[in-house]
Automatic annotation (TrEMBL):
This is UBA/THIF-type NAD/FAD-binding protein. Residues 35-268 form the THIF-type NAD/FAD binding fold domain. PANTHER family: ADENYLYLTRANSFERASE AND SULFURTRANSFERASE MOCS3 (PTHR10953:SF102), UBIQUITIN-ACTIVATING ENZYME E1 (PTHR10953). GO terms for molecular function: nucleotidyltransferase activity; thiosulfate-cyanide sulfurtransferase activity; ubiquitin-like modifier activating enzyme activity.
Amino acid sequence: MNGNNEHPKAKFVINNIVDTDDNPFDRQERIAWWDQEKLKNARVMVVGAGAIGNETLKNLALLGIGNIFIVDFDTISTSNLSRTVLFRQADKGKKKAEIAALRTKEMSLLEDANVSWFHGDAVWDLGTGVFRSMDIVLGCLDNVETRLGTNRQCWLAKTPWIDSGIYELGGHVSVFIPPEPPCYQCGASNEQLIAARKRYSCDDFKRSVLDEGKMPTVQITSSIISAIQVQEAIKFLCGQRVESGKKIYFQGRINDFAVLGLPKNENCDVHGTSYPEIIPLPLSSSVKLKDFLEYVTQDQYSGADASLDFRSDRTFVVSVSCNSCGSKIEMYKPTFRIFDTEIICGECKQKGIQANSELMAEKQIEVCFNLLKTDEKILDMSLSELGIPNRHVVAVYDKHNNYKYYELSEDTSIFQTC
């Protein structure tokens, strides 16, 4: 031994000792195929912050998912509290997405976790570009319309998504990975397609009064179904094989598990749809239509006389005829922002006449917009006022009817971070 107690034949030095108990992810990282770095970098959208959504967010936080985006348009009610691990009595009346994001951030075991939220309608208020920016989308939903909307957006964006649902003691989880069919819509029944139209009148206007059925369920079912959903998501994010186009079905009343193949509809108009190329534009949905058209009519984009085309994505209503007397009522709104009660003129309302939402009203609509042909009043409106959401991918055709697809890439305000 020498004077400083160092062994003359020592070939290595221990710089530090890592205590595995200081690593909150130690046990899961012992799984051979696990990749914690991929999970930390993953971008996961959770659509729906109710019973399943709460469990799913809790699981994602504890597993170390680094980027979580929560979407919900609802507020917290008393009946939510027994089925939502993230909500408290004092949260009643507050936005589900916001409170869920705050609690998910608190629960996350990552110091730099990015948890953001959006209070709005996933069907109409989220652009395709938001779905494109995600690695996977988890649907924690209780209605068919939002499932169909999420499915369509994910197929356009080529983003995998996992659907989940519960009823009493039973539930299901289905994985969809574009571009391989089937998609969710392939297996939708006529009853489900009718249910998807429940909140709209025959004019496609929103019903002002809607009797929404309440799903009978319990928190133990949502925790089981969420666990299966997140398990499949983790496997996918870590590069493991995940069965697409299969429904994992669980019935807790008799403790029965089954894996069912989902039908593929060759005539489905969704799973064969995607954009050939998407060109980012340094614009947001707050830009005026006139400025947008002037930008895309530049030679390096779609050139002179280019037109914005809604391509059946949404409809802009200029005016409607009064449901009673037939007089003209100016609207200048997208269809989904018009309620069935608005199709009665002021004079008829004073007479006590109410709109009949089952009767069709004549309406003037616009689906294509051009600098030379579109009314100046509409040109002065923003894309958002026309009904185009944040980060949307819009279709523009040139004078030769050739289409190009542009993402409004400057829309970043949608991600409200905790």
